[in-house]
TrEMBL record:
Keywords, comma-separated and alphabetical: Signal
Domain of life: Bacteria
Residues making up the signal peptide according to the UniProt record: 1-18
Keyword Signal among UniProt keywords: yes
Full protein name: Outer membrane protein beta-barrel domain-containing protein
Amino acid sequence: MNIRFTYLAMLISLLTFAATTEAVAGDGERDSIPESAYEYGYPNPFALGVHVGTTGVGLHIYQPLGNHFGLRLGGSFMPFRTSIVGNYGNRDVRSDVSAKANNVSLLVGWAPFAQQRGFFRTFNIQVGGAYFFDLSGKLESRLVDGYQYGDINVHPDRVGTITTHVNWKETVNPYAGIGWSNIVLDSRFSVSIDLGAYYLSKPSVSMEATGLLEENVNNAPTIENNIQNYRYLPRVEVGFSYRFWK
């Protein structure tokens, strides 16, 4: 996963360099992006946008606060669901995985190169946080086929199902990252790209089991201890905004 994020960051940086070079090489002509990365919108009313990324899909309100700063209030909704079939101990196991990461976020961006020429002026450093009112995961596993015990074939329903719940408490989680915000397409439309991570609270684990797997619920404290250091939630997000007033 970290390798994929590294490749993505390298690709975006390459595109940024290429766009900057092209803008400067234009024999002194201005490119279509305003003098300041935040010129469009300030001091006029906000822009409304949509976004999609690793923390879900949602809506946001974006307001420039001057030539170098911008404020973004957003809400994201992520219902994730998938099924995985794996082989463990020569037995096929079906796992149904679901996750939620519903949140409201508030981020402040600082564009240190806002008054430079070229695409790189939209680069910004972001800090803020998000209130996750539902951040949880669920893993439900069961055998695909029966369990053979001597001459007896035990049906998967008899073997049972084991369900693991992972939950983070409802709280505000700090965020830090970088991005390319307010990339102006014209006087009304803009694009944003964000890369960063939330720092989460320690997760809690609970388990439920049926059939022959009932005693496996005793493993919940061990699983909770093993994942207590996994507290970073990556955020890779692309957004589109529309400004209503010129």
